[in-house]
Specification:
With 127 residues, the protein is mainly alpha-helical. Helix content is 50%, strand content 8%. Strands 1-3-2 form a 3-stranded antiparallel sheet. A hairpin with a 2-residue loop joins β2 and β3. The longest helix is centred in the middle third of the chain and has 15 residues. The chain is globular, with a radius of gyration of 17 Å. It starts with 7 loop residues before the first strand and ends with a helix.
Length: 127
């Protein structure tokens, strides 16, 4: 008998899928070590993100970096984001570049981002 696993899971469903206690899932989510997203007061997790987590392809942000990122997103969403000061040799980012950056962070939070090792290799030309 094949059990159909939903693409988007609750904490209880994710705990059953990972075969751990719900408290473990909630702790990993709070610590930013497990990819998920709060919808209202409830967490939701993508099955594909959990599969990447199990495969060791998910490298979480440090708690400090995650907190800074969340503060930055809240500033953006509230319309209070400070303008980015360009370097002398660099142009100010366009609205499109800022939107791409925000979309990238959203993908990361939803567990849809590419594994960090893959990106690192691309950036350092070690691929």
């Amino acid at each position: 008998m094949t059990v159909k696993v939903p693409e988007v899971m609750t904490v209880a469903e994710a705990a059953a899928y990972l075969r751990v206690d719900e408290r473990t899932v909630r702790r990993l989510l709070r610590e930013g070590r497990l990819p998920g997203r709060k919808v209202g007061r409830e967490w939701r997790l993508h099955k594909a993100a959990l599969d990447r987590f199990l495969a060791g392809e998910y490298e979480p942000l440090s708690p400090e970096a995650l907190a800074a990122f969340r503060r930055g997103l809240e500033e953006i969403w509230a319309g209070r984001a400070r303008p980015i000061e360009p370097d002398d040799d660099e142009d100010e980012p366009t609205a499109e570049e800022l939107a791409d950056a925000e979309a990238g962070w959203r993908e990361y939070l939803e567990g849809k981002a590419r594994p960090w090792d893959e990106i690192r290799k691309e950036l350092t030309h070690d691929a």
